[in-house]
Amino acid sequence: MNCEQASEKLIDLVYEELPGDEARAVGEHILQCPRCREEFEKLQLARSALVMYRAGEPKGSKPVVRPYRRFLIGVAGVAAAILIAVGVWMFQEGTTDTAIAGPVEIKRLNVSLTILSEPENWPGYYPRFQQGPGQMEFQMDAQANNFSDVQTFRRVMGGGWRGLALVRDQRIVRNIKRGVTSVRFTDVPAGILPDTVRLRSLDDPDGLTILEQNYQYDLASASAVMKRYIDKTVTITFKNGETLPAGQVGVSGTLLSFDRNTLVIQPEGEGPRNISRKMVKAITFEKLPAGLLSKPTLMWQLKNAAAANQQFEVAYLTGGLTWRADYILKLRPAVHVKKRAGHLSDQPLKDKVSIIDTADIVGYATVTNNSGVTYENAQLKLLAGDVNLIKPEVNKWSFFDGSQLSGGESGGPQFKEKSFFEYHLYTLGRPTTIRSAETKQIELISGSGIRMKRGYVYDPTVNATAVRVVSEFKNSKDNGLGKPLPKGVIRLYAPDPTGVSTYVAKTSIDHTPKDEKIRLPWGFAFDIVCSVKQTDYKRRGYDRYHKWQYDLRNHKDYDVTITIIMRRPKTTHWAKCTKDGKDYPWHIREVGVWEVEVPVKANSAEKIIFEYRQNPQTGGGLKSPYDRD
After folding, report:
1. Helices 20-32 and 34-55, packing angle to 10 deg
2. What is the per-residue pLDDT across 151-170, written as a single tens digit (0 to 9) for each?
3. Residues 175-212: b if buried by 16+ CB within 10 A, e if exposed
4. In whole numbers, what is the pLDDT of the chain averaged over residues?
5. CATH ID of 521-614, from 3.40.50.2300, 3.30.565.10, 3.20.20.60, 2.60.40.1170
6. Residue ranges covered by each domain of the chain
7. ∠ at Cα 611 (608, 614), nearest 5°?
8. How far, in Å, CA of 35 to CA of 77, rounded?
9. Which CATH class is domain 230-284?
10. Among 182, 209, 304, 540, which is most exposed with the fewest C-beta within 10 angstroms?
């Protein structure tokens, strides 16, 4: 929207006659355009002055505010000056005691969300409900046949509170009185961290002083109401077919105590009675106790020396918003040609056999909103990296709060990645609505034609006989990708014999920068079997000699290379690997972990002998005898 289009709609915005979408569009333009914002404020000021002038007229006179509407357009500054002068004179004459009309009005203009990636083993943040009696009371409340309480309870006590997001909420606030006044913001998440809330006026920061800031969360749940009715009269109605011995279908009396299973009441002139919660259909109260809220509320006590209409920005951290990266890898396996006998007879067996597959990858940002609030037309930013957070005491309660899964969005601008401090920030190039109790997927990255080396890894500590299939590729631009990849889950799809893409396996990756190698372990190969056994052991003093034999059998109709992983003591000081009585290359992958790469022909077997000596007193310092390729 340009200035000319916005200017035509400003007067309708002042009189609140624009539809919601148009009002939001004009409001967003005002935020970005100082000239239009100044014109809008003049029109608001002129309207307030007209209202003030109207307040001094005799009762029964005809309205004078609306006829001035056309006059306000284009001459708002002059009109405001004249009418303010009239208003000041009327105030001095005592005809009115206020410079604004009506209660405080608050409307959201836009909201920005920056969601942090979830740290490893993060137990969640529970800002108000910690270990202790309060949790038990809230747990009891969740069982009181109140659906909203159960959902809130699950979010508070379970994984729904994991995650952290920075929210910047911009709202237009009208009719703020001068001097000391109060402003309340509703539609804030239940997982808000009160100590992180910050309020500022975007129009006149120096003219607004914050005297007090309060976060009120005493919600009108069943537990909260009943706690306030201790020693007061309540009426209990029983379920159909449930009666007391006297045949009563209900009873009234003083509520003495309650827990998740039992109510204790005392009818007038009788002794106390224990009533099972399973028998109760409804509990009737005389009225709602004072001080309870229907939703969490932020309240400020302000000293306002600025205009009556201002734009506020509230920034805070909240739990309940999480995001993760989910990748789909569509594999196109290499076409294998069946090997004829003696095909490799002219090649030395130590030459490795490489199988190169190709693949396409699509990564989605999966955003889950369990904060209890819907964010409409939000500017979404995702921060990838392991953020340092102080972990609170781990809560012993654990519940799962299921969410609705929206389909992945496509088309239009998606995320743009930028480096940010020691992290990576992904910004969505368009507004999006994230509803409460919703999981949304948006495309994050994509790559095609990725060349992946397929390998087979035998690690006896993982599986004594099976060989794991591993795909390895370089995250480079030349290889069809070259983008920072946030930590997440990768799901592998490969074509079945009919050519239909079928789910095969899944694995995970850590945060991976560009130009780094990625190794993806999948399942175990069906047609490759390995085994290992110790064939010799000797001990002389502290020196110990070991000898192991590895048998590798390839039942496929094409050649493969099998990588053997050997985990040996760090005190090893001598080692030797042989095949057919000749030395064979081996490498130290890391301290205590060695590997040997062995090509195995189709439908054949190979045998590797590995020997080493260790000495727990003087051993160590072993180096690889061969350079790694």
Report:
1. 120
2. 443 444 343 346 789 999 99
3. bbeeeeeebebebbbbbbebeebebebebeeeebeeee
4. 76
5. 2.60.40.1170
6. 3-100, 230-284, 521-614
7. 150
8. 13
9. mainly beta
10. 540
